[in-house]
Known about the structure:
The complex is a heterodimer. By secondary structure, chain A is mainly alpha-helical. Chain A has 10 helices and no strands. In chain A, helix 5 (89-127) packs antiparallel against helix 7 (141-180). The longest helix of chain B has 18 residues, at 173-190.
Amino acid sequence: MIAxxxxxxxxxxxxxxxxxxxxxxxxxxxxxxxxxGTAFRRxxxxxxxxxxxxxxxxxxxxxxxxxxGMVLGLQGFETLQTYGSESALGVLVALSLVRELGPVVAALxxxxxxxxxxxxxxxxxxxTEQLAAMEMMAVDxxxxxxxxxxxxxxxxxxxxxxxxxxxxxxxxxLVGVVLIGVDEGSFWSQMQAQVDFEEDILNGVIxxxxxxxxxxxxxxxxxYDAPPTAEGVSRATTRTVVTSSLVILALxxxxxxxxxxxxx
Amino acid sequence: MDNLxxxxxxxxxxxxxxxxxGINLAxxxxxxxxxxxxxxxxxxxxxxxxxGQIKPDSGSVQVAGQNVSxxxxxxLYELRRKMGMLFQFGALFTDMSVFDNIAFQMREHTQxxxxxxxxxxxxxxxxxxxxxxxxxxxxELSGGMARRVALARSIALEPMLVMYDEPFAGxxxxxxxxxxxxxxxxTDTLGLxxxxxxxxxxxxLKIVDxxxxxxxxxxxxxxxxxxxxxxxxPFVHQFVHGEPDGPVPFHYPARAYAEDLRLAL
Lengths: 264, 265
């Protein structure tokens, strides 16, 4: 075949493969939802995974949140000072965190901390035939291994994002009020007055739930689909982090566009 | 003849590549049956067919009178509760202790109280001589011990059929004998039927009742252990005596050597 033709043929083949893979992933996702009974009936299984995915992610989430909030405090103060409205620092910090940075950055951190761990664990369980052994023992690995991890991720993500935002606001307070000396009363009262529960906080929670579903589903599928070799598992782990990061950012745009109220 | 497992005219292939080309095989109740052959001849595929993990392209696989490939998921899971399988490297759950590994199926499939599960698990572990290792994690076990734990796990729910995928691979001579003896003893005392897939001729001929030799997707020879030792068939002779070249060639099929090296002929 001549070179340009081969190029077209390769493009076609890759597209077909990608579409087929999306199909497989969707079916896997639906199977996980359908076989979630065990994850709720024996909630202990899910709690255990919440510990691994959620509790063990706490440190990185809290520390990152604190620093992001502190940076927001510094940057926000500098900009607001130009317009003489430093008193709005609390609002700026809180809104940026609750609406955007909290859900997005927490999800990115969650993908690299917990998502990669989930993929590696499931991939290795597959490579060492633990999943096949489970099937041979008449125990469905999707119900017993995959579904509890999925729901653990979905439940942990909004909680982590909330903690990230709370920590960030505390960081902004440390820098803005304690360090620079913005008036404490206006920092908190303006925040209280300007942050809307439905428009800001609830929308942020919706975002983090969607991100939680996306990251956990991607991590589980990549692990389950990984070729059972050392190379296969390492590639799958990398792909989890890359794919979920891109998906988080793309979904964030879509969700923000839906939540956008327009001008006036 | 009371056969627990019957495989009739089974063909199977991955994509275009045929693995099994018309296999007939049976395992009688209470016997230890070995399936032997060189690596990559489709032995493990046979176990996967019996366990219903894959379906044959044609032919039938019957276990306890049921056609495995026609069962739905529920039926298959029901049947698998009566099967045990020892995977090549044990496939122990690495996030659970030895105790929890063996208790796994009891907790998943029965409503037994924890005290009874504890006693049952210790009895299974005692049978393989590892009662003292109950609290260890799989990563703390040697290869031979892990294999014994996996063996105890495969008989946890008193199955009627246990399949062993290369139970002797990578073991030291002592562990080798231990595993061989355990397979024989457990089969006899629990009234199991055992199917051993292996290429370890010397070790398995000591314990088996009946042997099938598989080569290139067909049964090349079959018979009792004595018949196999005495067999004049060149393939069996090569295999039993471990000769490097014979009907099973040393070389993987390739172009002519001279041609590959681009030598002028």
